[in-house]
Design a protein that fits this description.
The complex is a heterodimer.
Chain A: H1 2-15, H2 19-56, H3 64-73, H4 86-121, H5 133-146, H6 156-176, H7 184-207, H8 213-221, H9 229-248, H10 250-255, H11 260-265, H12 270-292, H13 298-310, H14 314-338, H15 347-365
Helix pairs in contact in A: 2-4, 2-14, 4-9, 4-12, 4-13, 4-14, 5-6, 5-7, 5-8, 5-12, 6-7, 6-12, 9-12, 13-14, 14-15
Chain B: E1 4-13, E2 16-26, E3 31-35, H1 42-49, E4 57-62, E5 65-66, H2 72-78, E6 79-82, H3 94-98, H4 114-126, H5 142-155, E7 160-164, H6 172-189, E8 192-196, H7 200-206, E9 209-214, E10 217-222, H8 224-227, H9 230-237, E11 241-245, E12 252-256
Parallel strand pairs in B: 3-8, 3-9, 6-7, 7-8
Antiparallel strand pairs in B: 1-2, 1-4, 4-5, 9-10, 11-12
Helix pairs in contact in B: 4-5
The chains are: A mainly alpha, B alpha/beta.
Chain lengths: ~375, ~270
C-alpha cells in the first residue's frame, strides 16, 4: 500500500496535478461509506435469518416453512389456507416472536449504550451500567419484590426498576457536577460509590426475604421468560428515539475522541453533547433492563467485536453495534430457552459465560491496541 | 484578511489572576511569538483566545467583530488551535483524525463532500503526511503526530492559527521542519499565527515579532533583536545569559552563562 501511494506521489509530482491523489483519497473515503451500507444490509439480513431460525426452535420444534406461512398469514390483505393448528400460531406469534423481538430490542439498546459510554469516557472498560443504572434498577426491582407494595400489578417491578435506575443516575450526575461542567472521572467515581451503596441495600433486602430469593435472582440475572407484546410496545419507542439521537451524534463523538479541549476548539459544545449522549444512553439502558433484568456483558463486548472488525469510527461503530447486539442477544436467549428445555438458564448467565472468556481474549489482545 | 485584536483581557483562576490587562494585535502573515517563563500565562492566553477558558473581562475582536458573541462552531471556522501535547485516539487512522478538522464546516446531519475530502487531502499534502494516510496514530513518531495535528488544523481552514509549544519534545531537525512549515503556511495563506514557545533561540530565528510575558502581563514586545536582550532575559526569566548575534543572519542567540568552572587545559 505504501509503495503504491508513493508511486502515486511521484506521478503527481511529475505532472503537477493532484487529480490522481484526490481520486485515491476520495475512493478511500467512499469505500468507507460503501462498507457501512454493505455491512448494515448484511448484518440486518443475518439478524432476520437468525430471528426466523430462532422461531423454529424451542420445546416444540416447528418447521421453517410453517414459520414462514404463519408469519405471512398475519400480514394485512393476505389470506392463506391454514394447515397448522391454532396452538402453533399461538406459539409463534404469541410467545416466541415477541420474545425474540424483545431480546433484539434489548440487545440493540445495551450495545448502543455501551458503545456510547466507551466513546464518551474514552475507556474500553466502560459499559452501560458504569454510572449506576444497573445498581439503581436492581435496588428498585428488589424493593418491588420485598416491600408489601401492590400498585402497578404486573408492572410493579418494571416501574420500580426504571425509577431506581433514573434516580441513581440523577444522584450520580448531581454529585459529579462541578459548576457548569461534568468531569468524566468524577462521574465514574461517583457512579462507583453510589453503585456500591445501592448494592449493599439490595443485598440486605435480598437477605432478609429468603422466600423471594428465587424471583430476585432470576431478575438480577436477566431473563426473557415473561416477554409479551405489551412490553415490546412500551419499551420500543424509547429505544428507537434514544438510539436515533445517539446515531445523530456519531460525528461529534468521533471529534470527542481527541480530548475535550480539542473538541471544543473544533466547534463541539462538549458539555451539551455529553449531557445529551449520557441522557440518551441512560434512558435506553433503563428501559432495556426494567422488564428483563440486568443482562451483563452484551454492552461491553459487542462494541469491542465491532471495533475489531470495522475500526473505531463511530459512524460505523454505533449502527453496527446496534445490529450485532440484537443478533447476539437473540442467540443467547435462544440458547437460554433451549439448552436445558423445558427449564430455562437465565440469559445473563449465558452472556457472561460467553462474555468473560471473550473479555480475557480482548485483554490479551490489548497489546495490539483494540481501543 | 483577518486581523486579530486583543483588548485588555483579564483571566482569573479563583483569587489568582493569570492574565492581566493584556492587549496586542496580530496582523495577517505575521508570525507572533509568545515567550516567557513557565507559568507566565502563555497557555492561558491560547486557551482564552479559543474560548476553552472564559475571560474575566476584556474583548477579542476578529476583523473588528467581537468573538465572544459567536457560536463555538463559527469560532472554530475562524480560529484553529494546535494544543500542547494533544491527545489523539491511538486506533484512528491519520486520515480519520485529519478529517475531524472539517467538523466545524458540517451540520449535525451532513457528511463530508468530495470538496471536504479534497481539502483534507491538501492539508495532508502540505504537511507531508499523505503517505501516512492509512497508518494508525499509535504507530507514529512524535514529529509525525505533530504534523497530523497541524494538518487537522489546516483542514479546519481557519483565519487564525494558535500553537502551544508546537516543537516541544522534538529533535532539532523536526523542530526546524515544523517551523519552516508554519512560516511557509503563514506567508502563503496570509494566516495570522501565534505561537507560544519557551525556546528563545527558536523564537528569535522564526518569529517576525515577539511578546515577552511576565506574570500574565506584557513585559516587552517587538522584533527579536529588541526583545531578546540579556537584561530582559535576566528580568523575566531570572537567568544570566549572554546574547550573541547569529553568524549567518545576525538574529540574537541566547547562550546560558555556566557556573564558570575553571577548566585547566594541560599543555
Amino acid at each position: 500500500m505504501k509503495n503504491q501511494q508513493s508511486d502515486k506521489k511521484s506521478v503527481k509530482e511529475s505532472n503537477g496535478s493532484g487529480i490522481q491523489k484526490n481520486a485515491l483519497e476520495s475512493s478511500l473515503y467512499s469505500s468507507h461509506r460503501l462498507l457501512l451500507i454493505i455491512s448494515v444490509i448484511g448484518l440486518l439480513a443475518a439478524c432476520t435469518i437468525i430471528a426466523l431460525l430462532a422461531l423454529t426452535v424451542g420445546s416444540v420444534a416447528i418447521p421453517f416453512k410453517t414459520v414462514w406461512q404463519v408469519l405471512i398469514s398475519h400480514l394485512p390483505f393476505v389470506h392463506l389456507q391454514s394447515n397448522w393448528s391454532s396452538t402453533t400460531d399461538m406459539i409463534i406469534t404469541g410467545i416466541r416472536l415477541p420474545r425474540i423481538l424483545l431480546a433484539g430490542a434489548v440487545g440493540t439498546a445495551l450495545s448502543t449504550a455501551g458503545a456510547t459510554y466507551q466513546g464518551l469516557f474514552r475507556n474500553p472498560l466502560a459499559d452501560p451500567y458504569l454510572i449506576g443504572v444497573a445498581q439503581g434498577a436492581a435496588l428498585g426491582a428488589v424493593a418491588g419484590f420485598v416491600l408489601p407494595w401492590t400498585f402497578g400489578g404486573n408492572y410493579l417491578i418494571p416501574i420500580m426498576a426504571f425509577a431506581g435506575a433514573v434516580i441513581a443516575v440523577t444522584i450520580v450526575y448531581l454529585i459529579a457536577r462541578v459548576g457548569k461542567t461534568l468531569p468524566m472521572t468524577t462521574l465514574i467515581l461517583a457512579g462507583v460509590a453510589i453503585g456500591s451503596l445501592m448494592m449493599s441495600v439490595t443485598a440486605y433486602l435480598t437477605m432478609i426475604s429468603a422466600d423471594k430469593v428465587q424471583g430476585i435472582l432470576s431478575w438480577l440475572m436477566g431473563n426473557f421468560a415473561n416477554s409479551n407484546w405489551d412490553q415490546l410496545k412500551i419499551i420500543s419507542p424509547y429505544i428507537v428515539v434514544g438510539v436515533a439521537v445517539i446515531f445523530i451524534f456519531a460525528r461529534p463523538l468521533n471529534v470527542m475522541q481527541l480530548d475535550e479541549e480539542q473538541a471544543q476548539q473544533l466547534g463541539i459544545n462538549v458539555e451539551r453533547t455529553k449531557i445529551i449522549l449520557l441522557a440518551a444512553a441512560t434512558l435506553i439502558t433503563a428501559v432495556a433492563v426494567c422488564f428483563v433484568g440486568t443482562i451483563g456483558f452484551v454492552g461491553i463486548i459487542v462494541p469491542h467485536i465491532v471495533r475489531l472488525i470495522w475500526g473505531p469510527d463511530h459512524r460505523l461503530l454505533l449502527p453496527l453495534s446496534a445490529i450485532t447486539g440484537a443478533i447476539l442477544l437473540i442467540l443467547a436467549d435462544t440458547a437460554s430457552r433451549t439448552l436445558m428445555s423445558p427449564s430455562e438458564i437465565p440469559v445473563g448467565v449465558i452472556t457472561a459465560f460467553i462474555g468473560a472468556p471473550f473479555f480475557l481474549f480482548l485483554l490479551r489482545r490489548t497489546k495490539k491496541a483494540v481501543f | 484578511m483577518a486581523k486579530l485584536e486583543i483588548e485588555n483581557i483579564n483571566l482569573d483562576y479563583g483569587q489568582r489572576s493569570v492574565i492581566r490587562n493584556l492587549s496586542f494585535q496580530l496582523c495577517p502573515g505575521e508570525l507572533l511569538g509568545l515567550v516567557g517563563p513557565n507559568g507566565c500565562g502563555k497557555t492561558s492566553v491560547i486557551k482564552s483566545l479559543s474560548r476553552v477558558l472564559t475571560l474575566s473581562s476584556g474583548r477579542i475582536l476578529l476583523d473588528g467583530k467581537e468573538v465572544s458573541g459567536i457560536t463555538r462552531n463559527e469560532l472554530a471556522r475562524l480560529i484553529g488551535v494546535v494544543p500542547q501535547n494533544p491527545s489523539l485516539p491511538e486506533t484512528f487512522t491519520v486520515f480519520e483524525v485529519v478529517i475531524l478538522g472539517r467538523n466545524p464546516h458540517l451540520g449535525l446531519l451532513s457528511t463530508e463532500t468530495a470538496r471536504d475530502i479534497a481539502i483534507v487531502w491538501q492539508a495532508m499534502e502540505r504537511t507531508g503526511i499523505t503517505y501516512l494516510a492509512k497508518r494508525r496514530i499509535g504507530e507514529l513518531s512524535g514529529g509525525e503526530r505533530q504534523r497530523v495535528t497541524i494538518a487537522r488544523v489546516l483542514a479546519q481552514e481557519p483565519q487564525v492559527i494558535l500553537m502551544d509549544e508546537p516543537t516541544a519534545n522534538l529533535d532539532i531537525s523536526q523542530q526546524m521542519d515544523i517551523l519552516n512549515l508554519i512560516t511557509g503556511m503563514c506567508r502563503e495563506k496570509n494566516i495570522v499565527t501565534l505561537i507560544a514557545i519557551h525556546d528563545l533561540n527558536i523564537a528569535a530565528q522564526y518569529c517576525t515579532r515577539i511578546i515577552m510575558l511576565k506574570n500574565g502581563q506584557i513585559y516587552t514586545e517587538g522584533i527579536p533583536a529588541v526583545v531578546i536582550t540579556a537584561e530582559n532575559v535576566r528580568e523575566v526569566f531570572g537567568a544570566e545569559t549572554t546574547i550573541y548575534p547569529h553568524p549567518e543572519n545576525n538574529l540574537p542567540m541566547v547562550l546560558p552563562n555556566g557556573n564558570h568552572r575553571q577548566v585547566k587545559i594541560v599543555n
